[in-house]
Amino acid sequence: MPQDIYTKSLLSFFDPDDGSWKRYENEKGFLAFISPMDGVTYEQGNADVYVKDLPFYVDVKIVQMRSLDEQAEPQFCFFLKYGAQGTQYVQLKGQSDVIHEVNEESELNITLDTVFDYLKFFNLFTSNDEGNSFYVIEGQNSELFKSYSAYEVSRYLRKFTGSKIDDASELGVYTINTRVLCDGTLYDCDFDVTRDGFVEMKEDNWVGSV
Asked: What is the CA radius of gyration of the chain?
């Protein structure tokens, strides 16, 4: 079937002010629950907590903990909130098996409308053997470009013709061609994403550094 260029914006993960995030109701309790983490005790005053629904799940939310330090760039930690009545939490630290475990215990909703968001989520929160993740750049409206100059955006999108999704859902798989950033290098990649949440990079073509 013919492929159309993807023109929507993918789910945001780092901008709590974009209107899609809500402040976590029991922020104080959650910060006490995860502290200490990596030797740091988090509390109201040095961290904010936000939560949002994930469209490719029926009953799973993502929780963002953002550290507050006027002398440094904010640091982000992410958790999935899942299970019966949302009583289970797991931190997203780069292991794909953690996501697959949540997938097995939750109801997925991977469709033509949500599969690209799932790909961004999966690639962002899993790491390769070198410890790097793949940041999906869907196009001109990528979250990555929010504070970039037109020049910087042009460097990220050079020689890029746009993201495309091939709907082969009758076979239980979607093929997505898009651009990704990994450790300062751009690639154009083909991914297969199954309706049960497995992602495979089928091909990657080196573009260059940024």
From this structure: 18
pLDDT tens column, 80-118: 999 987 789 999 999 999 999 999 999 999 999 999 999
DSSP assignment of the chain: ---PBP-SPPPPSS-TTSSS-EE-TTHHHHHHHH-SBTTB---BTTEEEEEEE-TTBSS-EEEEEEE--TTS---EEEEEEESGGG-EEEE-SB-HHHHHHHHHHS-B---TTTHHHHHHHHHHTB--TTS---EEE-STT-GGGTT--HHHHHHHSTT----EEEEEGGGTEEEEEEEEEETTEEEEEEEEEETTS-EEEEEEEEEEE-
pLDDT at 207: 98
Q: Angle at CA 175, nearest 5°, toward 170 and 176? A: 140
**Cα–Cα distance between 210 and 142 in angstroms, integer?**
16
Contact 57, 103 (CB under 8 A): no
Name the percent of the chain lying above pLDDT 90: 86
Q: What does the angle CA 94 – CA 196 – CA 170 come to, to the nearest 5 degrees?
A: 140
pTM: 0.94
Bridge partners of 51?
22, 63
How large is the greatest C-alpha to C-alpha distance in the chain, in angstroms?
Answer: 53
User: Residue 2: pLDDT band by 50, 70, 90 thresholds?
Assistant: very low
Structure tokens at 202: 């089928």
